[in-house]
Amino acid sequence: MRILLTGRTGQVGNALLSTLQHLHQTEIIAPQRTQMDLNNPDQIRQLVRDIKPDLIINPAAYTAVDKAETEADLAQTVNGEIPGLMAEEVKKIGGALIHYSTDYVFDGSKRAKDNSLIAYIEEDQTAPVNVYGATKLAGEQAIIANNCNHLILRTSWVYSTFGKNFLLTMLRLANEREELKIVNDQWGAPTWAGWIAQATTDIVSQWQLAGMSQDWWEEQGGTYNFTSGGATNWCGFAQEIMAQADAKGLLKKNAPVVLGIPSADYPTPAKRPVNSILSSGKLRDKFGIQPPTWQDALAACLVSANN
Predict the structure, then answer these.
(1) Which of 11, 112, 114, 203 has the fewest CB atoms inside 10 Å of its own CB, making it the most exposed?
(2) Which helix (H) or strand (E) holds 258?
(3) Is residue 132 flagged as an active site residue?
C-alpha cells in the first residue's frame, strides 16, 4: 500500500510519521512543505497524479483560528478547496482519503433539557461561528460532494510535545509565572496527537486486513468524532497539566496557581464555541476504538516527553 501523508511538520502529521511505519508492506510518502504547498492547487493536483497513492491521509490545515479572521481567502484555499481537490483526484485512481476536521464546525449551543451541555453527535446540524470553522466545514462538504472513499475525523483541542500548542505553552508559562488566568467557560476534550495517530493507524490496519476492499469503505466510510473521552474547560486542562507535570518532575519550580476567568475577560478576534464536546460512540461501534479519557491521554503524552 502506498500512503501520501500531508502536513509532516504539524502535530498530527509528525505523530503519523511514526505510527504508520508499523503498518505491514506500506510505503509512506510524506513530502516537505516546499514540495506540497497547500496554497498551490495545481502543485497538489500534480503531486497526487504522480504518486498515485492508495490512500491520502491529510492532517495538514490552516489552523491559526484568530488569524483566519483576516486571512479568510488563504484559510479557504487550504481548508476548504484542497481537501475537495484531493478527493477528486484520489477518486480517479480508485484510492481513498482520510481527512481531519474540527469541533469548530458546530456553534457550541447544544444543551440538554436541563440546560446542561450535551455532546454533539456526527449528525447534528453544523453552524460554525468563526472563519476557521467555516473553512473546515467547506472542506468536509467538498470531500462528500466528490463522493470518494473517505473518512472525515473531527477532533478537538489537539496538543502534543511537538510544535506549538496549549500544553507546551502552559509548561513554558509554568516556569515563568506564579499565577495563570485561563478561560473556564469553553468546554471540550483535549486530544493528544499521539492517540490520533495511533487510532488512525489502527483504522488503516483494519482496512488492510479487509483486503483493502471497496466494500469496507461502503460499510465504514463517513464522518466520525475523534476526540478523547470526557470533557473539561481550558482552565481545568491547565490545572491538570500542572498537577501531572509537577508529579512527574517536569517543572523547574513550584506550579503556578491557575485561576479561571470568563471568555469575556480574554477577548479574541475569533469567537469560540462554548460547547465543543463530541460523542465518540460511533467510532467505538464501527471500529472498536475506545478513546482514552483526556486525563489518561495527557499522562501518556507526558510520559512520552520523558522518554
Answers:
(1) 114
(2) strand 257-261
(3) yes
SS3 246: helix
- pLDDT, one tens digit per residue, over 206-264 is 999 999 999 999 999 999 999 999 999 999 999 999 999 999 999 988 999 999 999 99
Name the average pLDDT for the chain.
Answer: 96
Closest among 94, 104, 103, 2 to 57, alpha carbons compared: 2
Helix (H) or strand (E) segment spanning residue 138: helix 131-146
Question: What letter does residue 229 receive in the DSSP assignment?
Answer: B
* Whole-model pTM over 0.85: yes
Q: Is the pLDDT of residue 306 over 70?
A: no
Largest CA distance in the chain: 57
> Residue 119 pLDDT > 90, yes or no?
yes
First CA to last CA distance, the chain: 31
- Burial of residue 270 (number of CB atoms within 10 Å: 0-12, 13-18, 19+): middle
Strand blocks (E) in 85-155:
96-102, 149-155
Rg (CA), the chain: 19
Distances in Å between the alpha carbon of 71 and those of 44, 76, 162, 254, 272?
21, 9, 25, 40, 17
Q: Which listed residue (62, 104, 132, 224) is catalytic?
A: 132
| Cross-strand partners of 97 | 56, 150
- For residue 120, give the 3-state DSSP assignment: strand
Q: Give the residue from 77, 95, 201, 215 showing the smallest Cα distance to 146.
A: 95
Among residues 233, 209, 222, the alpha carbon closest in space to that of 294 is found at 233
Listed residue (22, 20, 26, 23) closest to 8, CA to CA:
20
For residue 204, what is its C-alpha cell?
488503516
Helix or strand or coil: residue 202? helix
